[in-house]
Automatic annotation (TrEMBL):
Residues 498-737 form the Histidine kinase domain. The chain crosses the membrane at residues 357-380. It comes from Zarconia navalis LEGE 11467. PROSITE patterns: HIS_KIN (PS50109). GO terms for cellular component: plasma membrane. The keyword Repressor does not apply. The keyword ATP-binding applies. It is a multi-pass membrane protein. Its EC number is 2.7.13.3. It holds the Pfam family dCache_1. This is histidine kinase.
Length: 737
């Protein structure tokens, strides 16, 4: 019986038990892979954010070489991130200088990590306008980062991938900005993950070209250029599969993954095969199939799938090249960049836990079985076998005495009375054992119930801790993004103040000279007219050159220049007042002046048909941080303008009202529009970090969240009232004193 129990337990553990334990081990690898994907997505997101910041800055810079040389490298070297190999600005032909086709600005790090300026891209015959990383982003959504294949830069000789973001002026494509990420940094990042996942990890780009690998010499081709320097080029997974067939199943699976991405994109309404044809035609580096995949990736067809887990598939490798044993590859999708993260783990390690548990249980079952058999045998011997043997011996002895007619001696034999109740004793013992078994079963059931409750309690605690960790991670990401946004706003303020200062000096010089030109012109006209009275020859010459027209036109031109310089001075003064970089402390501020400065800065957008209606009451000055309050006004007004311009509204209006409520000692600033309004389900999340209804590239989801925090910091309040079709009203309440 014990042997059958042992065999049954062994059979169950060797089949179903091992399978369940292996599945749990695979889930552990899946969780580790998802964590790695999140970290990789965060790293690529940092580079994409830096590239978008560079793009936004370039769009607002004057086209002056000295300004670009000063500002651009400082942005590229943000936080001195040495994994950033370099970056640059790449204008469209004749956009930076009317007579220059190629005028790029590129910086790359030298061997000591210092950014150096390279002008080589402007000198090459083919230029940069047909490069893969330049052509693709033309067709991407504004603000979207387009990632290149892995490559070695021909001038800095750094293996890298490039994030490219387009630049626009009045919604017209004007060029690109790029940030280059060293593959060496990604290689180090992946190596650190291997200590957690076991096995090995590597990354492929969207075309299944290697970005990292544990043994780089297996996935690189080496050659020399005309200068004798070594060129390193990563190969595709299919090329490695040709060298070693063990990777053939993985290569075929990832090719099928790209086909599925293409098929999903074809089902999307925005898919346009003509875009793929243009990409293929415009770049000598992109073939037809690559162009189709690139067009699909631009549409991001996997954005609504793989939400819970980024694990796409698992593939068995019969005899891995590096691990030298049968292994399993776990393929994860990396959002946005469409890279693939692959974790290769030996099957023996995945099943090792199950094997250890099986061997341990088998040993315990065998030992327990032998102990039970020994105890049963010992009890039976003492309670049944030995008494029966004694009884049989007495009976045989009594038989021998009867045969010898020694009847009188039979009475002398004393039969052991213990046997008389032996059957009853066995029955009583079995009954007692059954009672004890029932009690044990009840105790076991109670223990199982308690154990299930404890497991459920611990599971709930684990879920709560995971939820807390996820909340903490979200807060950390929010804080990090807000710090980046704040630093960008601070940098923008310094840039605005610097530009305003640089513009103000020459404008003041021009304005001063115009005054003397006007004065001298009037004196010259008086002299000429006084000479006309006695000089007929001079009068005829002046008639030939239309003197009266020239006199009137010249005075109008001088007056026009005066008005223009006064307008420039007004804009410069508003820029300085808005930026207020030197006012990091709390100061008394006129809120209405801040509102007027903000309106002036947004005047280019307001001129598109938006009417501003001011309803200012007399309000006292407030103690606040001027730059932060101006940022709140800027975000609210910019959102209102965007909402009006996105809809076909006959009369676009924005009302700005200020009120002083003396009883409550507060000032209210109300910004209202007659736009489409905000749906109720969106109003609940309007102040959440990263929540935005704008397309990619037009909003970070941080504007209103930062407004809310700034107002809270000033011990004020910001409220929203909106009904669909009735417009939107934001009310900012700030305390006085």
């Amino acid at each position: 019986m014990g042997l059958w129990i042992a065999l049954g337990v062994t059979l169950v553990m060797n089949t179903r038990g091992k399978e369940l334990i292996s599945n749990e081990a695979s889930k552990s690898i899946e969780q580790a892979g998802n964590n790695a994907v999140s970290k990789l997505e965060a790293r690529s997101g940092e580079i994409a954010a830096l590239t978008r910041g560079l793009s936004t800055t370039v769009e607002n810079l004057p086209k002056q070489e000295e300004t670009f040389q000063e500002i651009v490298p400082k942005i590229i070297d943000f936080n001195n991130d040495l994994d950033v190999a370099g970056g640059g600005v790449w204008p469209e032909p004749y956009r930076f200088e009317a007579d220059t086709e190629r005028r790029s600005f590129f910086w790359g790090r030298d061997e000591s990590g210092i950014l150096q300026y390279y002008d080589d891209y402007n000198q090459t015959p083919q230029g940069y306008h047909n490069e893969e990383w330049y052509v693709a982003v033309r067709h991407a959504k504004p603000g979207t980062c387009s990632w290149s294949e892995s490559y070695m830069d021909p001038y800095s000789y750094q293996p890298m991938v490039t994030c490219t973001v387009a630049t626009f002026e009045d919604e017209e494509f004007t060029g690109t900005t790029t940030i280059d990420l060293k593959l060496e940094g990604l290689q180090n990042l992946v190596s650190s993950w291997q200590n957690i996942t076991g096995g090995y990890v590597f990354i492929l780009d969207r075309n299944n070209k290697f970005i990292t690998f544990p043994q780089l010499d297996l996935v690189k081709n080496f050659s020399q250029d005309d200068l004798g320097k070594t060129i390193e080029e990563f190969i595709f997974l299919s090329e490695l599969a040709q060298k070693d067939s063990v990777y053939l199943p993985l290569s075929e699976a990832l090719d099928m993954m790209n086909e599925e991405i293409l098929e999903l994109a074809r089902q999307m309404p925005d898919y346009n095969l003509e875009i793929a044809e243009r990409i293929n035609r415009d770049s000598y580096q992109i073939d037809r199939e690559n162009a189709k995949l690139l067009t699909a990736v631009i549409l991001d067809p996997l954005s609504q799938s793989l939400l819970e887990s980024k694990l796409y598939s698992t593939i068995n490798l019969p005899d891995d090249l590096i691990l030298k044993e049968p292994s399993k590859a776990f393929v994860f999708h990396v959002p946005s960049s469409y890279w693939k993260l692959v974790i290769v783990k030996p099957i023996s390690e995945i099943e090792a836990v199950g094997n250890r548990i099986f061997n341990l249980i088998f040993l315990y079952v065998v030992i327990t079985t032998f102990i039970c058999i020994f105890i049963v045998y010992y009890v039976l011997r003492k309670t049944s076998i030995e008494p029966l043997q004694n009884l049989a011996s007495h009976i045989m002895e009594m038989g021998h005495l009867v045969e010898k007619d020694r009847i009188q001696d039979v009475k002398k034999i004393e039969v052991d009375r213990i046997f008389v109740n032996e059957v009853q004793f066995v029955a009583h013992t079995f009954s007692t054992m059954l009672d004890r078994l029932q009690i044990s079963q009840e105790k076991l059931a109670n223990y199982n119930h308690t154990l299930e409750a404890e497991i459920q309690k611990r599971t709930q605690e684990l879920v709560e801790k995971n939820t807390s960790l996820e909340s903490t991670l979200t807060e950390l990401k929010s804080t990090q993004s807000q710090l980046i946004q704040t630093e960008k706003m601070s940098g923008l303020g310094r840039l605005v103040a610097g530009v305003a200062h640089e513009i103000n000096n020459p404008v003041s010089f021009i304005k001063g000279n115009i005054y003397y030109i006007e004065s001298n012109t009037k004196e010259l006209i008086e002299i000429v007219e006084s000479e006309l009275q006695d000089n007929t020859s001079l009068e005829n010459k002046l008639e030939d050159i239309e003197y009266e027209f020239l006199k009137e036109d010249l005075l109008k031109a001088v007056r026009s220049m005066q008005i223009g310089t006064e307008r420039i001075e007004e804009i410069v003064r508003s820029l300085k007042n808005f930026s207020r970089i030197d006012e990091a402390e709390v100061k008394n501020v006129d809120l209405q002046e801040g509102l007027d400065n903000t309106i002036l800065i947004l005047s280019s957008q307001i001129k598109k048909g938006v009417k501003i209606i001011k309803e200012y009451d007399s309000i006292p000055s407030l103690e606040c941080y001027p730059a932060q309050i101006n940022q709140v006004f800027m975000n609210l007004l910019a959102n209102a303008i965007d909402a009006l311009l996105e809809e076909e509204i006959p009369s676009k209006k924005i009302w700005i009202a200020t009120r002083y409520i003396k009883e409550a000692q507060i000032v209210e600033v109300e910004i209202r529009d007659n736009g489409p309004g905000i749906p109720p389900h969106i109003q609940q999340k309007i102040f959440d970090p990263f929540f935005t209804t704008k397309p990619i590239g037009k909003g970070t989801g941080l504007g209103l969240a930062i407004c809310y925090q700034i107002v809270q910091k000033h011990k004020g309040d910001i409220t929203l009232h909106s009904e669909p079709g009735q417009g939107t009203r934001f009310t900012v309440t700030l305390p006085v004193g």
